[in-house]
Specification:
Shape: globular
Order of helices and strands: EHEEEHEEHHEHE
Number of strands: 8
Number of helices: 5
Length: 179
């Protein structure tokens, strides 16, 4: 994975500073909010518990028949995700948040195996449920693991980058996003 900054402060931070900030934000909360588009063009968002890997793929466990999963076809899987600790007091100099854009789809193959491993490690109580997500279920009612592949980011981390400083950029991968 390679991070390319589009916009940042003077003396832009390096790859390690940006990835450490993003990892800190992801470690600091368990919920993401994902925005999709409904059949009628109306926006829809849902919250989901997530896990992530070192290549900035986020994994969530959900039902294929859910509205947000059905909405993926309306935008060819393109969605936006936000991650922020809702318990932040909002004190200047401490505010943090992460916005991501990319694609979401059912996890398959090695991406499914990695997602199961990451999700089970982060949520031991869900280990059996996430492993069951890999089993065939023609009913469509069972939970399935979905993978969000981040392609663009906007990170707000005043502790790392200073007051009112947003960094925007792209995430480049040398291998295909879905394995």
């Amino acid at each position: 994975m390679r991070i390319e900054l589009d916009h940042g402060p003077d003396g832009e931070p390096g790859f390690l500073a940006v990835t450490e900030s993003i990892e800190c934000l992801l470690d600091g909360t368990r919920l993401l909010s994902m925005a999709t588009v409904g059949d009628d063009g109306a926006p829809w968002s849902h919250n989901a518990y997530f896990a992530y890997d070192s290549d900035l793929h986020l994994y969530c466990l959900t039902r294929p028949a859910s509205g947000h999963v059905r909405n993926l076809v309306n935008s060819a899987g393109r969605v936006s995700v936000t991650v922020a600790d809702t318990g932040q007091p909002g004190t200047p100099g401490t505010r943090q948040g992460l916005q991501l854009q990319g694609h979401c789809e059912p996890a398959h193959g090695s991406r499914l195996a990695l997602g199961i491993e990451e999700f089970a490690a982060r949520y031991p109580a869900f280990a059996a449920a996430v492993r069951d997500a890999a089993r065939p279920d023609p009913s469509g009612r069972a939970l399935r693991l979905f993978v969000f592949t981040a392609e663009e980011f906007k990170v707000f981390d005043e502790r790392a980058f200073g007051l009112d400083t947003w960094l925007t950029g792209r995430i480049r991968r040398t291998a295909p996003a879905a394995v």
